[in-house]
Amino acid sequence: MWCRPYWQSIVSFLAKKITEFLLRQCQYQQANNKDNAMKTAYSLNADKIIIDYSSFYCETPEKLLRSRPFADVTSRYLETIAERETPVYLYFRQFYSEQDILNLSQDVIAALRLLTTHRSDEVSALSPSLAHLLSDTAQFYEFVEGLYNYWRTFERYIVLAAPKTRLRTRDSIHHASFIHANETLRLLILRTYRTICDNLVDTPFRVYRQLPAGAQFGLLLQHVLWDCPTPYETLRKIPFIRLTLLEPPVILYPRRNTRSGLFREVRQNPVDDLELAPESWFCYPAKIGKLLAFTYFHKDFMSHGASLANLFELANYEDIVDRRPDIVMIFGGPSLKFTEEQTVFHQDHHSGMIVGYVVGCEEIDYFGYMKKMLLTLHNVIMLDRGHLPVHGAMVTIQLKSNVKANVVVVGDSGAGKSETLEAVRILAGNYIRDMSVIFDDMGSLDFSGPRVLGFGTETGAFLRLDDLQPGYAFEQFDRSIFMNPNLTNARVILPVTTYRRIVRGETVDFFLYANNYEKVGAEQPVLELFQTADAALPVFRAGRRKAKGTTSESGVVDSYFANPFGAPQRRTVHEKLAVELMHKLFASKTVVGQLRTQLGIEGMEQSGPQQAARTLFDWINKSHPC
User: Fold this and answer.
1) Residues 6+ apart with CB under 8 A from 381
2) What are phi and psi for residue 370, nearest 5 degrees?
3) Are residue 416 and residue 290 in the same domain, yes or no?
4) Is 485 contained in some domain?
5) Is 219 helix (H, G, I), strand (E, B) or coil?
6) How many structural domains does the chain have?
7) Residue 325's closest CA among 276, 369, 283?
8) Using an 8 Å Cβ cutoff, are 329 and 373 in contact?
9) Are residues 101 and 115 both part of a single domain?
10) Which of 238, 538, 542, 562 is deepest in the core (most CB within 10 A)?
């Protein structure tokens, strides 16, 4: 017969499990019942439109032209041409007063609907009240072209909620349905536009252009229950992005083009007493190296959040459900009551997570704030785990001579690390058999074993257009997201490697500092090797470079270990690990030196990285590190 204490422990255990089960079922039901997240069919502001395809579904031109989003876009376009007093608007003014803009919009839409099935003369006969609008079909055709182009100036997003089920269903079914929905809308818009134009002109078109007319980004959303601690309840109802669909090239125009300052650590958790409206927020679950980061962003910064798809691996369902992330990042939140800082982070030891917070304002409307905050949080965790984060790039290069080397080039923004490796890629036909990227901006080094291993964080790259080889951006045009291509420090985000490559760990054969400010000469070779760890450490520690306009800095500046993302915030820990790493590199016969890229020297922006790449080839052949 069981003793009483044992029986009581069994009852207590079962009661606890039943309570946990009922609580999770209740939480799940609440999440499903709260359809506020996307019940509004669309959101439209000055530069972006977000359409919920579960509430807005059109399969015919008639439904499309009767929809509320189309009416709002049309009214806004009429207001735009009215402000400019364009010839088309002056043509309409013959028939409508300035105060009668609403009737004008309604009549224009009515005419467009009839033009999807009838020629212009037939529309005038069928509806005499619209005949005045079509009295000059050339003018009305100009209006249609202008409206179509105006629609395409918006950042266009479609979101669709996946079926609400606690059990995981086949992703392929949801994915196929979602892709079909996006394709249907794109073809519908094109068909409607072309039909209207055909019915307005006398001569049929002989050239058709397949312009991107649908959504630039498609997001399949799903509420997934994750291991959410109590202080983070406000995040529980925000849907996760489960699939992204891009129609590149995507060109975006954020309001800022540079980043400034450091991310400050705060003692108070930014999520304390935080309330977020779930209908205005999305979560991109990113795999940053081996870490899991839930990145929550406000719809005002949709362009940045959606662009993460070209930079970080999107987490699987199994990575999310019942899991607690390493990182939580909130981008675009309300101002914090306890600090005036706009970019802060907090290490929550109680939950085991680290929390990043970026206040929503015009000053942070730059993708660099989102990317670098995530990498800062990653780096802090890596330091806590005894790995050294590295701001730089790492590639595996296999020469035609069968010599293979893994090269790490360290440097802050604009130092020439990415540009030199891009020059390596350009020269590949003459020198190398294969080249694969391990990391392009941030990685971490594990030196617990006999050799130093490098791990990446990103599957994509956030590159400065001005410093890329001519024509490269156009070669990658059909995979790229461009940001402010008309401005200094124009950027492109494009995929460069696979998740499998960045997390498997590669031995470091070359460890080089990217020196962009010194011109190559007799006393300053392209590649200068260090003989000891004590000789190398001051150069890497100073992190000196000539600023290239990627941040608010100018001139020759220093940055601790060329890494303002975690290293200064954990300087004591970082210094200890950096010294240990450097001695391990020399003990394992790794080539350590500085590579003069000359990227910061006027006139050397292209030839400097090319010269550095050729020298690197020669040294790889000479050293035979494999």
Assistant:
1) 291, 326, 327, 354
2) -70, -50
3) no
4) no
5) strand
6) 3
7) 283
8) yes
9) yes
10) 562
Final residue belonging to a domain, choices 384, 410, 428: 384
Question: Angle at Cα 87 formed by Cα 81 and Cα 92, nearest 5°?
Answer: 75
Residue 214, token pair as written in the block: 């649908």
185/259 same-domain check:
no
CA distance 236 to 289: 24
Determine the Cα–Cα distance for residues 283 and 236; give it in Å rounded to an integer: 10
CA dist., res. 320 & res. 308, Å (int): 17
| Domain identity same for 439 and 515 | yes
- Helix runs in 34-60, H state only: none
In contact, 493 and 481? CB cutoff 8 Å: yes
Judge if the upstream peptide bond of residue 285 is cis by omega within 30 degrees of 0: no
Whether residues 66 and 179 share a domain: the answer is yes
CB 537 within 8 A of CB 582: yes
**Whether residue 355 is found in the same domain as residue 408:** no
φ and ψ of 256, to 5 deg: -130, 155
Report how far Cα 563 is from the mean position of its chain's Cα atoms. 21
**Domain termination residue (choose one: 182, 198, 214):** 198
Instruction: Rounding to the nearest 10 degrees, give the CA dihedral for residues 36, 38, 40, 44.
Output: 130
Q: What is the dihedral angle through the alpha carbons of 102, 108, 114, 118, rounded to the nearest 10 degrees?
A: 160
CA distance linking residue 222 with residue 160, whole number of Å: 9
What range defines the domain where residue 267 resides? 248-384
Task: Let me know: does 548 contact 467? Beta carbons within 8 Å.
Answer: yes
Contact 486, 384 (CB under 8 A): no
Q: Look at residue 209 and tell me if it is in a domain.
A: no
Q: Which of 512, 570, 575, 569 is nearest to 539 (CA)?
A: 512
In degrees and rounded to multiples of 5, residue 400 shows phi and psi of -65, -20
Nearest to 514 by CA among 405, 414, 620, 594: 594
Residue 221: per-residue pLDDT: 93
- As given in the structure block, the two tokens for residue 91 are 């043509």
Which amino acid, residue 233? Answer: E
pTM score of the predicted model: 0.86
Residue 419 pLDDT = 77
Q: Check whether residue 190 and residue 103 sit in a common domain.
A: yes
State residue 6's pLDDT score. 47
Peptide bond into 229 cis (omega under 30): no
What is the rounded distance in angstroms from the CA atom of residue 86 to the CA atom of residue 291? Answer: 54
CATH number at residue 577: 3.90.228.20
> What end-to-end distance do the CA atoms of the chain give, in Å?
68
Strand, helix or coil for residue 140: helix
**Mean pLDDT in consecutive groups of 10 residues from the start of the chain, 626 residues:** 49 48 42 44 88 84 93 94 93 83 90 96 94 95 96 94 60 73 90 95 79 90 94 96 92 91 92 95 97 97 97 95 97 95 96 97 96 96 97 88 90 80 74 84 94 96 74 67 90 92 96 93 92 96 84 81 93 97 96 93 87 88 63
Q: Which two tokens stand for residue 402?
A: 């069968």
Burial class (CB within 10 angstroms; exposed 0-12, middle 13-18, buried 19+) of 452:
buried
Residue 607, domain member (yes or no): yes
What pLDDT sits at residue 271?
A: 97
What contacts 206, CB < 8 A, 6 or more positions away? Answer: none
Are residues 106 and 59 both part of a single domain? Answer: yes
